[in-house]
Design goal:
Number of domains of chain A: 1
Structural class of chain A: mainly alpha
Oligomer: heterodimer
Radius of gyration of chain A: 20 Å
Strand order of the largest sheet of chain B: 6-7-8-3-9-10
Radius of gyration of chain B: 19 Å
Strand content of chain B: 15-25%
Order of helices and strands of chain B: HEEEHEEEHHHEHEHEEHH
Number of helices of chain B: 9
Largest sheet of chain A: none
Low-confidence stretches of chain B: 4-16
Helix content of chain B: 25-40%
Largest sheet of chain B: 6 strands, mixed
Number of strands of chain A: 0
Strand content of chain A: under 5%
Order of helices and strands of chain A: HHHHHHHHHHH
Distance between the termini of chain B: 23 Å
Shape of chain B: globular
Chain lengths: ~260, ~270
Amino acid sequence: MNTVLALANIVIKELYRRKDFYVLFVLTAVITLLMGAIRFFHDPQIVRDLKEICLLLVWIAALIIAITTAARQIPAERESRTIFPLLAKPVTRGQLVIGKFLGCWLATGIALVIFYLFFGIMSGAHEDKWPLLSLFQAFWLQWVMLAVVVAMVLLGSIVFSAPSANVTICFFVVLGILTLAGHLNQVALQQQEPLSTMTYTVYFLLPHLEWFDIRKFIVFNWPPVPWRYCFLATLYAFVYVALFLFSTWLVFRRKALTA
Amino acid sequence: MNIETSDPAGKSAGAKAGGSVVIQIQNLVVEYRGRGFGQNRTVAVRNLTLEIRQGEVFGFVGPNGAGKTSTMQVLLGFREATSGEACLFGVNVREPIARQRIGYLPELTYYYKFLTAEELLRFYAKIFKIPRDETERRIGSLLKLVDLESARKRSIKSYSKGMQQRIGLAQALINDPDLLILDEPTSGLDPLGRMKVREIIQRLKDEGKTVFFSSHELGEVETVCDRVGIIHRGELKVEGRVDSLVQKYQTNLEQIFLNLVGYQPQPQP
C-alpha cells in the first residue's frame, strides 16, 4: 500500500506542478463569473440555464483533466525512462497500475472538489438554497464515473502506441457512451435478429456512464437521489474499474520494456 | 593476435572469490521476434552463463548490440528470458523481492522533472519503506556524496546532464544496496564526473558491495573492475579477472576487446 500511495502522490504532485492545473483555476473563475451574473437576472429560467451551463463546464473540464492525465502516465514514464529505475525497485507492475490509477482519480477528485465548492457557494448565495446533499451526490457520482474513465484510459495507454491516439479514442468513446448508450436498448427493440441481440449485448457490456449524471437534480432543485441508488451506482462503477485495471495489468505484466 | 574464446580465467576466478553468489545466470537465451510478418527471430543473448560473487566489481563490456542491455533487462525484470534462468541473491528475477537489495542506474534517464532532488529521493525511499528519520539522514549523506547538496531544493528540470546522472546514482544508492547495477554510468559525464563515479564505485567495493556495470570505456573497466566479461553477438567470449586476462594475452583490455570483436585497422593511405 505504501508503494501505491507513493506512486499516487507523484501523480498528484505532477498535476499541480504542471500548467494543466491552472486551466482548472481559469475554468473555476469562469464558472464563478457566470454565477455572479445571476444576480442581475431574476428570471428563474435564466438561473437554471446558467446552472446547467456551469455544470456542463464542470463535466467537460473534469473529463479533460481525467483523460489527459491518465493517458500520459505510463507512456510518459516509458518515454522519459523513469519506468526503469522505478521497476528496478521492488515495485510490481500491478502496483504501478493501481498507483497511477489512484493518483489520477484522486487528482481529478481534488479538481472536482474545487469546482463543486465554487459552484455550491455561488449558486447557494444567489438562490438562497443550499442543496448540500444533492451537491455531494452529484460530486460523488461524477467522481465515481471518472474512476471508470481513468481506468479505461489507463488500459488504452497500454494498448495504443501513442498517447494522443488514446486521448482521442477515449474522448469519443466516453462522449458516445454519455450521449448514446442509454438509447441502445430502444434501438435494439427496433432491429431484426441477430442485430437486436448484438445491440443488446453491447448495451449490457458498456459501462453506462450516463447513469452517474444527476445534474438535473441540481438544476431543478429536486430532492436528493435515494442513497441506495448511489450505493448501487458506486458498486457498479467499481466493478468496471476492477475489470479495466485487471485487463491493464494482464496486458502490461508481460510487456517487455525496451530502452 | 588470436584470442581464444573459451573461458580460461573466468569460472575459476568467480569461484575463487569465495563470497556468496549474488548474480547467477544460467543458459540465458533472449530472442526478439521480428515485428513484420515472416520476419525471423533475432537472438540477442545465446546461452549466457555467469556467476558474480559478493564484493566483486564486474565489468560487462561489448560493442553496441552485443546483448549487454538485453541481459540487464532480464536481470531487472524488464524483459522475460526466452529460456534459461537468472537469479539475484538466489531469488528468481521474476520475483519483485529479488530487487529489494539492488540499486540500478540506467543510462540517460530523465527523472521526474517536477520534483526536487530531495523529493525524488524521498519518493524512492518510500518504496523501500525506509523510516522517515533514516530517509532524511540518507538523503543528506547521498546528496553530499554526489555533490548535489546545494541543489537539493532545485527542480530536477533545471539540472545539467551530469547532475541528472549524479541524482540517478543517488537514487540507486537510497536503499543502501548490496548489489549495484550500472548501465553506462559515466556516459555523458565530464572527466570530473567520471572520476567521481569511479570514486563512488571504489568506495562501494571497499564496503563489500557488489557492482555489475556495463561500459564502453575500457580504460575505466580496466581500472575499476575485478573481473570482466566480454560479450559479442550474444555470446560471452571471455570472462575472467582483469589482471589474469592482461597477463595471459600480454596486452591491454582494449586490444583484447578489439581482437575479440574482429576489428581490423584500416591501412593508412
